[in-house]
Amino acid sequence: IMGGTGTGKTTFTNLISDSRFKIGNGLESCTKHIQTIDFTFNNRIVTLIDVPGFDDTNESDADILKMIADFLVSEYKAGRRLSGIMYLHRISDVRMGGASKRNFAMFEKLCGQDAFSNVAIVTTRWDQEEEAVAKARLEELKTKPQLYKPVLDGGGAIFRHERTRESANAILSHLVAKTATPLLIQHEMAEESKGISETAAGKELQQEILKQVEKHQQEIDELLEELK
């Protein structure tokens, strides 16, 4: 389960598995490490993996990427495959800002196109927005090429999560029925022996860091010009 801070990853995990992982109510993330829980679902053992977002308040994006990559490669080498990958997004967000876009870009690069059919985009916090407004946002998320359309075109699905057990069951039922498939970063690191910086996700992160450096340099130059 992936997504930005405060999108409801841990809440979903607790709801579907009857766990008691700590939930954050403020701006800081409570998921500082990867958390896993095994439970029985539809007469089979399911493992849910709750990971920090790339906008985590406690760790850098580079640290988060390394944490996730090391875990995924370890699982791959142990012969365990993911049947589904959830990405959570707050429908209550007025727009998909920079942090959200960065989170999803990293998610896409971690998964790779071959795994898009195993992706479930889960929209949350419908109770915090007017129905008509939320539905309009959902349509925008589904149809804009710079948002979720590429993943949906690649076979991914999008869900409306009502924060109920029934809603969570429907999402998980969809994913556990999928054929397990390796993620791109697992193939890159375990099969092609690439370092993190050589992977698609690693290159995406490097590009984002360079953009931030250039932006900050421009702001410094403008400030210095004003001080003259």
Can you describe what's shown?
Helices cover 46% and strands 14% of the residues. It is an alpha/beta fold and 228 residues long. Residues 24-31 have low confidence and may be disordered.
List the defining traits of the structure above.
6 strands, 228 residues, 4-stranded parallel beta sheet, alpha/beta, 46% helix, globular
Secondary-structure blueprint of this entry?
Blueprint: E1 2-3, H1 9-17, E2 35-41, E3 44-50, H2 61-77, E4 85-90, H3 98-111, E5 119-124, H4 131-143, H5 149-153, E6 157-160, H6 165-176, H7 184-191, H8 200-227
Parallel strand pairs: 1-4, 4-5, 5-6
Antiparallel strand pairs: 2-3
Q: What's the story with the biggest beta sheet?
A: 4 strands, parallel
Shape: globular
Q: C-alpha Rg, in Å?
A: 18 Å
Provide the low-confidence segments as ranges: 24-31
The total count of helices amounts to 8
Kindly, what is the distance between the CA atoms of the first and last residues, rounded to a whole number of angstroms? Answer: 50 Å
From the helix content, strand content and strand pairing, which structural class follows? alpha/beta
Average of per-residue pLDDT values: 89
Please count the beta strands (DSSP E, at least 2 residues each).
Answer: 6
Helix content: 40-55%
Strand-residue proportion: 5-15%
Order of helices and strands: EHEEHEHEHHEHHH
In order across it, which strands form the biggest sheet?
1-4-5-6
